[in-house]
Design a protein that fits this description.
The protein is of the alpha+beta class and 299 residues long. It contains five helices and twelve strands. A twelve-stranded antiparallel sheet has the order 1-2-4-5-6-3-9-12-11-10-8-7. α2 runs antiparallel to α5.
Length: 299
């Protein structure tokens, strides 16, 4: 198993330190703040540890404060309700007794019902027809790339991304607020469905907010901007494996008042809709008086 996906699975192996209370760590390289997808995934696995016989079908999280990757994070789970078909959990992630992330999650027992779904966009190239992430990175990093962009991309990651139309983060240009990316874990995963849901939740925060910047000619790496996820919601509709290729279709329907709204549809390779995603993020122009970290939530 590649090192990066093994490391992510280790991050999801939370320590139980008390009744419905868990502790998680973060990688100490990369972002100065905890990656938002990591907070979502760890909170989801904490909630899942308190539910039996039901799978997570939706989660709604809010990023409150920037998480420090040098510190352990405590996840406290509240058992809000266990009904006949659904279980509801609330998770508060804390560092130094301060909430940095809160999430509600709902779990549903498997049952029969109606079935229809949105169709995958036609004519999308298969992932094998696209340059590998390694090839894209070699070409990108061979150029004069700012250090903060190079340090983020020039390392192994647990999720492999193959964009249908790769963005140039140093000169992004202006385009339609739509972004299509094939993704999967960077190596095979265990069969535990809860882990696959957590890795999908982790991956859905990677490229979503950047979609709101495409019509304006910016990227999330632009130092003229303050960019951070404000909230994140995922609905999981059907079974899937995170170590198989999935297509992430992302669109931005609105940007206003220093906030951008984005949503995404995740399709299996066979064209089945497996998950839907929505997110609002901060996309604020910096001023000289702006403190770059004073009011930013987790990325």
């Amino acid at each position: 198993m590649p090192t990066a996906i093994r490391s992510l699975l280790d991050l999801l192996d939370l320590d139980e330190i008390g009744p419905d209370t868990f502790r998680g760590l973060s990688p100490t390289h990369g972002w100065r703040r905890i990656f938002g997808g990591q907070a979502v995934a760890q909170a989801l696995i904490a909630a899942s540890r308190t539910v039996t016989g039901r799978a997570a079908h939706s989660l709604h999280g809010y990023f409150i404060l920037p998480g420090d990757p040098r510190l352990a994070t405590t996840f406290r789970v509240e058992r809000v309700r266990d009904g006949g078909s659904f279980s509801t959990r609330r998770v508060v992630a804390c560092q130094d007794e301060r909430a940095i992330f809160i999430m509600s999650a709902s779990f549903h027992r498997d049952e029969d019902g109606f079935d229809h779904h949105e169709e995958m966009p036609p004519g999308v190239p298969e992932p094998e027809e696209l340059p590998s992430e390694e090839a894209l990175l070699r070409a990108f990093l061979a150029r004069q790339v700012p250090d903060h962009i190079r340090s983020f991309w020039d390392r192994e990651r647990p999720v492999e991304l193959r964009p249908v139309r790769p963005r140039d983060f140093t000169d992004p240009g202006v385009g339609e607020p739509r972004h299509l990316v094939w993704f999967r874990s960077s190596g095979p995963m265990p069969d535990d469905p809860a882990l696959h849901r957590c890795v999908l939740a982790y991956a859905t925060d990677f490229t979503l907010l950047d979609t709101a910047l495409i019509p304006h000619g910016y990227s999330v790496f632009d130092k003229r901007l303050m960019v951070a996820s404000l909230d994140h919601a995922v609905w999981m509709h059907r079974p899937f494996r995170a170590d198989e290729w999935m297509l992430y279709v992302q669109t931005s329907t609105n940007a206003h008042g220093a906030r951008g709204f984005t949503r995404g549809s995740v399709f299996s390779r066979s064209g089945t809709l497996v998950a839907s995603v929505a997110q609002e993020g901060l996309i604020r122009r910096r001023t000289r008086r702006s403190d770059p970290d004073s009011d930013l939530p987790i990325k």
